[in-house]
Amino acid sequence: MESGIFGLAAFGFWMFIAAVSVGGIWDGVRKREAEHETLRRMIESGKTPDQDLVDKLLGHKKDPARDLKVAGLIVIFVAPGLALMGWVIGLAQPEALMPLFGVAGLVGFVGIGLLTAARFLQRATRDDSAENRNIFR
């Protein structure tokens, strides 16, 4: 009987994750439709939208390198928290200490990878924009 309850709890957890994911995607799609509808109505009414408004509504000013940096910093700071959690759990269950230190190390390396990817992306974007400036001169 006990395993059935744990199975239902696991199923409920994954259904919650699925619902949150689908809800986030649906919300993004609805916002995008509203942005396009705003532009369409402006054009139909004869108004010419300025470039700043178009960029803001269509999202041309997004900075993926910044997003990677934020994610990397968050993940980097999760790693010591996991190590601390491993140490605290290790006081009661010593065999849990090393696996949780391993998990903390893995999470730390993921954070370092995200920060490294942000740096490479930032450098590539800067090089591409410099190359485009040289083409048009």
Describe this structure as you would to a colleague:
The structure is a single chain. This protein has 137 residues and is an all-alpha fold. It folds into two domains: 1-61; 62-137. The protein contains four helices and no strands. The protein has helices spanning 2-44, 51-58, 64-92, 97-135. α3 (64-92) packs antiparallel against α4. The longest helix has 43 residues, at 2-44. It is flat and about 70 Å long. The chain starts with a helix and ends with a helix. The model has no long low-confidence stretch (mean pLDDT 86).
Question: What attributes characterize this protein structure?
Answer:
single chain, 87% helix, flat
Brief write-up:
The chain is an all-alpha fold and 137 residues long. Helix content is 87%, strand content 0%.
Major sheet details: none
**Amount of helix:** over 70%
**What do the pLDDT scores average to?**
86
**How would the global form be characterised?**
flat
**DSSP helix count?**
4
Q: Determine Rg (CA atoms, Å).
A: 23 Å
H/E topology pattern: HHHH
Whole-number total of structural domains: 2
Strand tally, please? 0
Measured between the Cα atoms of the first and last residue, the distance is 75 Å
The parts where pLDDT drops under 50 for at least 5 residues are none
Structural class: mainly alpha
Query: How large is the share of residues in beta strands?
Result: under 5%
